[in-house]
Design a protein that fits this description.
There is one protein chain. This protein is an alpha/beta fold and about 325 residues long. It folds into 2 domains: about 140 residues, NAD(P)-binding Rossmann-like Domain (Rossmann fold); about 180 residues, Rossmann fold, CATH 3.40.50. It is about 35% helix and about 15% strand. The chain is built from 14 helices and 12 strands. Helix 8 links the parallel strand 6 and strand 7. The longest helix has 19 residues.
Length: about 325
């Protein structure tokens, strides 16, 4: 019987008990789950991976050491779209398929992005805290209507953010070297450079992939370009932001606020500096967590794993060409 380790917490919480899990079990696949309540460390994976034919991961560190220890691995199925936590080179050298779930969470994350924009702009989090303290502070917020929205990264999620911005009649700017020019023209998006984006926009939202060119792309320099009443939203990757630089900018009121769903270390430590600030909304990497999105993603994962175990090329393979199939 083929064995799969379900490391991804979201897959364990929902997909395992519903249709995606049923599909895997019907195919005769044994699924062992992550019951610790948080992602695995590299050390933990090294002690677990041997003997498994496949693994379903979230942000778990699939390093070269882990991949090479998994001598039976045929597939690494990422529950999500960002696969920077997987050593593609090591997987490819071992002829292990790496799959992901494109399109599964793009609408959900875009919805969450606007939820965070509205909470932050209208100070809803502060109003909630006031009521809970037994106070009645009518806290002033800012409108979102007609504001300048800056999108860093105009992929699937960024495009969905553009579509949602139309209801607020926002003026949209985007920075992405690989931007779809036709989409921008059709939707009235201004393509600009990084400096212009941060200087011009009232709200900047991050939707870029993480690589060496984007790591800490939000730093002392880019934050210094922002307006004092500007807002920053990150539902993409924690390491896009220099968190110490963001803390300084928020504490010194050089920008008005930030909403952060992703962190350089998850969960953040108890002494994480942003926890002490009132002008920050923090959520536990939940922007892509909706029942609809998780089941859609889980179904894609099940199909990929079943195909791989049948000796077929699974759908949504990241490294198909490199493997030579």
């Amino acid at each position: 019987m083929a064995r799969v380790l379900a490391a991804s917490l979201s897959f364990c919480k929902l997909s395992l008990q519903e249709e995606p899990g049923d599909k895997l079990r019907a195919a005769g696949i044994q699924i062992d789950v992550n019951s610790k309540g948080q992602q695995f460390t590299e050390t933990e994976l090294l002690s677990l991976i041997e003997g498994y034919d496949g693994i379903i991961v979230g942000a778990d560190p699939m390093t070269a050491a882990v991949i090479n220890k998994g001598t039976n691995l045929k597939i690494i199925a990422k529950n999500g779209v960002g696969y920077d936590n997987i050593d593609l080179k090591a997987a490819t050298e071992r002829h292990i398929y790496v799959t992901y779930t494109p399109g599964a969470v793009e609408r959900t994350v875009a919805d969450s992005t606007f939820a965070l924009i509205l909470v932050l702009a209208r100070n809803i989090h502060k109003g909630d805290a006031s009521i809970r303290r037994g106070q009645w502070e009518r806290i002033i917020g800012s409108d979102v209507w007609h504001k300048k929205l800056g999108i860093l990264g105009l992929g699937r999620i960024g495009k969905n953010v553009v579509r949602r911005s139309k209801g607020f009649e926002m003026e949209v700017y985007a920075c992405d070297p690989a931007a779809d020019a036709a989409f921008c023209e059709q939707n009235g998006v201004h393509l600009v450079d990084l400096e212009t984006l941060f200087k011009t926009c009232d709200i900047v939202t991050l939707h870029a992939p993480l690589d060496e060119t984007t790591r800490h792309i939000v730093n002392d320099g880019t934050l210094a370009l922002m307006k004092p009443d500007a807002l920053l939203i990150n539902t993409s990757r924690g390491d896009l932001v220099d968190e110490q630089a963001l803390y300084r900018a928020l504490k010194e009121k050089r920008i008005a606020g930030a909403a952060i769903d992703v962190f350089s270390k998850e969960p953040p430590p108890k002494d994480f500096p942003l926890l002490e600030l009132a002008n920050v909304v923090l959520t536990p990497h939940m922007a892509g967590y909706s029942r609809d999105a998780l089941l859609f993603s889980g179904d894609m994962i099940a199909e990929s794993i079943i195909a791989a175990f049948r000796g077929e090329v699974p759908p949504n393979v990241v490294n198909k060409e490199r493997i030579g199939q």
